[in-house]
């Protein structure tokens, strides 16, 4: 008796086997799709901060609102850059002015506070510069390599 003849004589068995094969295929597809899907992050992404005027830096949660206390010092956001073939360095620092900081911590973050409530400076500078004047901000945020090239911004 050939396979075709056996299938004709046992249609229920053939239907059961076909259903089982289709079921296994569907389960396999679902497992593959679920294994490769994008999962939402379980924690806020990290960014860099410095608590010693940019001499060193550390990564911590982006949920922190600078300035904040870190090991007894005031930590501020640090923007880390790297020139080709060079080591990473702090290009400039950022913090929120006291009124903006207090409002953000209280849950009242607005685009206006994000834009005009920040203070910026380069490591080693004595004074902080208030944000709001694009020309002044650009001078601080325009970081260059010693050879005049453009460094790459580094994320944790």
Brief rundown of the structure:
The chain has five helices and eight strands, in the order ααβββββααββαβ.
Keywords:
8 strands, alpha+beta, 156 residues, 5 helices, 25% strand, 8-stranded antiparallel beta sheet
Strand count, sense and barrel status of the largest sheet are: 8 strands, antiparallel
Strand-pairing-aware structural class: alpha+beta
Q: Would you report the number of β strands? A: 8
Q: What percent of residues are in strands?
A: 25-35%
Number of domains: 2
Radius of gyration using CA atoms only? 29 Å
Mean pLDDT: 89
The H-and-E topology, N to C, reads as HHEEEEEHHEEHE
Percent of residues in helices comes to: 25-40%
Give the number of helices: 5
Distance between the termini: 69 Å
Uncertain residue segments: none
Q: How does the overall form come out from the CA principal axes? A: elongated
Describe this structure in words.
The chain is of the alpha+beta class and 156 residues long. The termini are far apart. Strands 1, 2, 3, 4, 5, 6, 7 and 8 form an 8-stranded antiparallel beta sheet that branches. The protein has 2 domains: 34 residues; 109 residues, no CATH class. The chain is built from 5 helices and 8 strands, in the order H-H-E-E-E-E-E-H-H-E-E-H-E. The radius of gyration is 29 Å and the shape is elongated.
């Amino acid at each position: 008796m050939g396979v075709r003849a056996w299938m004709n004589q046992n249609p229920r068995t053939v239907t059961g086997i076909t259903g089982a094969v289709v079921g296994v295929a569907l389960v396999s597809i679902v497992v593959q799709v679920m294994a490769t899907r994008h999962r939402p992050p379980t924690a806020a992404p990290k960014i860099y901060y410095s608590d010693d005027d940019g001499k060193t830096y550390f990564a911590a949660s982006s949920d922190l609102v600078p300035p904040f206390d870190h090991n007894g010092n005031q930590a501020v956001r640090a923007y880390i850059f790297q020139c080709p073939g060079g080591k990473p360095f702090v290009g400039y620092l950022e913090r929120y002015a006291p009124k903006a900081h207090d409002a953000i911590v209280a849950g009242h973050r607005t685009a206006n506070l994000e834009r005009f409530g920040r203070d910026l400076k380069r490591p080693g500078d004595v004074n902080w510069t208030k944000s709001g004047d694009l020309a002044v901000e650009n001078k601080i945020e325009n970081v260059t390599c010693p050879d005049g090239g453009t460094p790459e911004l580094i994320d944790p």
